[in-house]
């Protein structure tokens, strides 16, 4: 159990040399969807330049329309993992939509000689896909980044995490990524980062915030700072342990979530913004 039923022992883990707990802080930045080798390499090089060893990269994409780009899937894994290793990336957060994808990731890692690690991401659309939750929970190699269901109560999402933990894998990060409301919103979803301390108190899991998906665009406040920066800072000041954020070298060419992708020129500013926010925590 992860703490929902009274077991409040701190939970954290070290994976591929990176410690993740309620006391650590990391930025997982990268592409929403892996498109070209050139773009992936630009991201890894930019991360290496600012000293970041953790990335996000989507190979399998849960799209609203079946006619939209579904991700390159296993085809991109061999070169993606090898390239990540070349740039010193220790963990890639990567969404899986089916237990089959875990096998594909394992095979690609094995064949490449484990140049990097993968944290298996459960997307908000699969937040109550119990068979998938049990599948990621019953393997003990990879940690899990669980994203809160955008239409679920917090209680329901915490119970979904119990499905993972009950299968034996307690290396879980709980990610807040905004929720849908009936109230209308200038953003894509309502930011729920006020729940960072709530989840930390109730579960002792490390908590992640994703500012990209609830905001949904590069819109900026009159101060010139993007809303994505502002809300990410709110999450970090509230004690978030991971920020998961989408970048693209050329957002207009992105095959998924281009409008919310931040450019690589912004990366050092984003990192500095987060550093200051973490200090303020
Ligand atoms: C993603 O991280 O690319 C993603 C699809 O996120 P979510 O499941 O939160 O919508
Ligand atoms: Mn995305």
Anisotropy-based shape = globular
Number of domains: 1
Q: Helical stretch count?
A: 9
Q: Multimeric state of these chains? A: single chain
CATH topology: TIM Barrel
Per CATH, which architecture? Alpha-Beta Barrel
What is the mean pLDDT? Answer: 96
Can you list the strand order of the major beta sheet?
3-4-5-6-7-8-9-10
Q: Indicate the proportion of strand residues.
A: 15-25%
Task: Point out poorly predicted stretches.
Answer: none
Structural classification: alpha/beta
CATH level 1 name: Alpha Beta
Ions, cofactors and other bound molecules: phosphoenolpyruvate, manganese (II) ion
CATH H level: which superfamily? Aldolase class I
H/E series:
EEEHEHEHEHEHEHEHHEH
Number of strands: 10
Query: How would a crystallographer describe the biggest sheet?
Result: 8 strands, parallel, barrel
């Amino acid at each position: 159990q992860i703490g929902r039923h009274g077991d409040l022992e701190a939970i954290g883990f070290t994976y591929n040399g990176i410690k993740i707990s309620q006391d650590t802080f990391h930025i997982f930045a990268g592409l929403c969807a892996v498109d070209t080798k050139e773009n992936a390499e630009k991201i890894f090089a930019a991360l290496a330049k600012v000293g970041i060893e953790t990335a996000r990269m989507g190979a399998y994409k849960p799209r609203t329309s079946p006619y939209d780009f579904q991700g390159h899937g296993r085809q991109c894994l061999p070169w993606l993992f090898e390239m990540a290793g070349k740039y010193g990336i220790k963990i890639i957060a990567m969404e899986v939509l089916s237990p089959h994808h875990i096998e594909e990731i394992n095979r690609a890692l094995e064949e490449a000689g484990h140049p990097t690690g993968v944290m298996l991401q459960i997307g908000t659309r699969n937040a109550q896909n119990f068979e998938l939750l049990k599948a990621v929970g019953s393997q003990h190699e990879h940690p899990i980044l669980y994203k809160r269901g955008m239409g679920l109560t917090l209680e329901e999402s915490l119970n979904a995490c119990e499905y993972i933990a009950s299968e034996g894998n307690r290396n879980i990060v709980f990610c807040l990524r905004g929720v849908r409301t009936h109230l209308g919103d200038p953003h894509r979803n309502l930011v729920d980062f006020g729940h960072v301390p709530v989840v930390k108190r109730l579960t002792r899991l490390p908590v992640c915030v994703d500012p990209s998906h609830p905001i949904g665009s590069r819109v900026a406040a009159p101060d010139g700072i993007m809303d994505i920066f502002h809300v990410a800072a709110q999450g970090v000041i509230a004690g978030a342990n991971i920020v998961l954020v989408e970048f693209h070298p050329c957002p207009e060419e992105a095959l998924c979530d281009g409008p919310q992708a931040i450019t690589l020129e912004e990366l050092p500013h984003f990192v500095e913004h987060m550093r200051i926010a973490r200090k303020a925590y």
